[in-house]
Design brief:
- By secondary structure, the protein is an alpha/beta fold.
- The chain contains 12 helices and 9 strands.
- Helix 2 runs antiparallel to helix 4 and helix 6 packs parallel to helix 7.
- The chain has 2 domains: about 60 residues, Helicase, Ruva Protein, domain 3; about 210 residues, Rossmann fold (3-Layer(aba) Sandwich).
- It is about 40% helix and about 15% strand.
- The strands form 2 sheets. Strands 5-4-3-6-7-9-8 form a 7-stranded mixed β-sheet, with helices on both faces. Strands 1-2 form a two-stranded antiparallel sheet.
Length: about 300
């Protein structure tokens, strides 16, 4: 970007320049990155960028945008740069202490709603749900909004993640429905059939795949929230052996899993001997992304 352009930099000119620059540098989603960062720098929506396409930028606005572009050039995720990520049509605060919520995790939300939000099974005020590995709180907050009759416990081993999840819960008016607990899996809970649903998005990336992840994931997102051991199933295996002890009879377990892991996870649940036959649900790309099973009565 020229420091002294012959004519003022307009919004549309900057979008073109930043998109081309990101493309040349191999940055993923160059156009979307340019739009989100410029909107953030100017305090506008992405739609506003096009409504004000010929608006010139002041020198301080240019400097602010340039600093964001340089961060993105170093593969830093857009969500960490802006501090925000949309998930389930809600705006969540994010930082490097938590994974960035992804569209495929919305399948986990839908998998729970499909069995709890039905005509013959409406949640009651005494019903409880458990979110294991809550991270930013995106999953439990979305579920709490969709199922207002339920109370939730959200567990994470990271104190920094829980602090952010609490802040997100307050921002979305869900703090009174969710109790946050620092623990490793079920470590802070006494085994008892008290939950109507247990939901979890645990680390599931196998070690061999970890080494091949793009730099914007491997270098910036928390390793402990991604790496699931040699086969990716270390944490899911532990949860599958224990979850039925915390589920009420007829309660549901829903797990997000990695590509190709659904058959192995279904076998783990079958081996537990506490569930009806599990089912695997595909994400938007047809990958079996969620395994769901009902506790035997």
């Amino acid at each position: 970007m020229s420091e002294t352009p012959q004519s003022p930099w307009t919004i549309v000119a900057l979008l073109r320049w930043a998109t081309d620059y990101f493309s040349d540098k191999g940055v993923s989603e160059p156009r979307a990155s340019a739009e989100v960062l410029l909107a953030h720098a100017l305090g506008l929506s992405r739609l506003d960028l096009y409504l004000r396409h010929d608006q010139p930028l002041a020198p301080e606005e240019l400097a602010r945008f340039k600093a964001l572009v340089l961060r993105r050039r170093q593969s830093e995720p857009v969500a960490y740069i802006t501090g925000h990520r949309e998930f389930w049509s809600l705006d969540f605060l994010v930082n490097p202490a938590v994974l960035i919520p992804r569209p495929e995790t919305e399948i986990l939300i839908q998998a729970v709603l499909d069995v709890l939000k039905t005509e013959d099974r409406r949640p009651k005020t005494e019903d409880r749900g458990l979110d294991v590995g809550t991270g930013s709180g995106a999953v439990v907050i979305a579920l709490a909004r969709e199922l207002p009759g339920m109370q939730w416990v959200a567990v994470d081993v990271s104190q920094a993640a829980l602090a952010l999840a609490r802040e997100n819960a307050w921002r979305h008016g869900m703090a009174r429905q969710i109790h946050f607990l620092q623990a490793d899996l079920f470590g802070g809970l006494k085994p008892a059939p008290r939950f109507q649903v247990v939901v979890a998005n645990l680390p599931y990336v196998p070690r061999r795949e970890w080494e091949q992840l793009p730099p914007e994931i491997r270098a910036f997102e928390p390793r402990q929230a991604l790496l699931g051991g040699e086969d990716g199933l270390d944490f899911i295996r532990l949860l599958a052996r224990q979850a039925h002890r915390y589920l009420c009879p007829g309660g549901w377990l829903a797990l997000e899993v990695g590509a190709g892991q659904a058959p192995a996870v279904m076998e783990l649940l079958a081996d537990a001997g506490a569930y009806h036959p599990p089912a695997a649900l595909p994400d938007y790309q047809g990958i079996l992304r969620v395994v769901r099973a009902q506790r035997l009565d």
